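Example 9 (inverse folding). The structure is encoded as follows.
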């Protein structure tokens, strides 16, 4: 019997561990990306541009499930240009080949929590430019599902941390200073309650959706996450695994605004800081109930993150 094929578009922070999980489960895996490398050795790599609809359809040939794990650079203008094209091309590719489509998404389209946990029943109410772009892409995906064009679902997650998470706050902006024993600047309130998703749990959740029965499709899912806590509490757990204190320095808002004048990333980040104005809590109850799958123990997750960071950034523990 031919092993079913799973095709992953994007081999970044989530795409690569997702590919490895699928390979470990005995699936055939094709990773679709712009550049060579960056995929598990046992995976097939297909290079090309996902803004090309014909290429996407070619890459999807023979697949049982497509996974959309691509994310443009953190720039609203690029998101507005590329996010709709990626979504349209993968919907069309899934429709032409008969594959199912699982997309990775964040929670920007839901906007402010207004004192309530965010879950699958929270209506879209974006309060940022990037949230508006995400909301339109999600609307297009589920409209295609309702029209019978594709069998589709999406897994949503808040901010990431974990092995491979270089592009998260708890990645390149964090670890070089933390491992050097320096104070780490944070652009948001580290004492506000905030849900973080562990990258391996995000990948595992997507694989669960990609292998689920058709009844799981046609709706979004919040991927598994540990109960929300403060950023400082999460960092203190990492400090315990590291064996020394990690000191945080909160940067005042007016400094961030000033930095935004000459640092585009700070300008882009500014509109998302509302997520730390009040408790920002994700509920994964529906996913746990439907699939019986929860998150990794937070102590194990933080220890694995520290071990990865020491290897990746070259830091050494003081313990």
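The amino acid assigned to each position is listed next.
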């Amino acid at each position: 019997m031919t092993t079913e094929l799973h095709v992953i578009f994007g081999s970044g922070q989530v795409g690569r561990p997702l590919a490895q999980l699928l390979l470990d489960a005995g699936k055939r895996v094709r990773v679709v990306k712009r550049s060579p490398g960056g995929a598990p050795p046992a995976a097939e790599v297909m290079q090309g541009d996902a803004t090309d609809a014909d290429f996407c359809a070619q890459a999807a040939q023979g697949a049982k499930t497509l996974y959309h794990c691509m994310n443009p650079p953190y720039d609203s203008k690029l998101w507005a240009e590329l996010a709709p094209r990626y979504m349209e091309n993968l919907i069309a590719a899934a429709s032409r080949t008969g594959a199912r489509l699982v997309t990775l998404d964040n929670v920007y389209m839901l906007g402010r929590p207004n004192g309530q946990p965010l879950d699958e029943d929270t209506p879209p109410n974006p309060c940022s430019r990037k949230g508006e772009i995400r909301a339109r892409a999600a609307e297009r995906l589920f409209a295609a599902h309702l029209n019978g064009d594709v069998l589709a679902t999406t897994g949503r997650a808040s901010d990431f941390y974990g092995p491979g998470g270089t592009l998260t706050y708890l990645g390149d902006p964090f670890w070089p200073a933390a491992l050097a024993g320096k104070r780490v600047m944070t652009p948001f309130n580290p004492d506000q309650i905030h849900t973080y998703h562990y990258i391996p749990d995000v990948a595992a959740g997507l694989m669960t959706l990609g292998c689920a029965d058709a009844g799981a499709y046609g709706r979004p899912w919040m991927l598994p996450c540990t109960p929300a806590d403060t950023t400082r509490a999460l960092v203190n757990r990492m400090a315990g695994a590291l064996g020394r204190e990690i000191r945080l320095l909160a940067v005042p808002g007016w400094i961030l605004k000033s930095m935004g004048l000459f640092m585009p990333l700070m300008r882009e980040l500014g509109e998302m800081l509302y997520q730390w104005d009040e408790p920002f809590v994700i509920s994964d109850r529906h996913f746990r109930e439907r699939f019986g799958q929860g998150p990794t123990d937070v102590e194990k997750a933080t220890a694995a993150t520290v071990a990865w960071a020491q290897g990746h950034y070259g830091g050494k523990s003081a313990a």
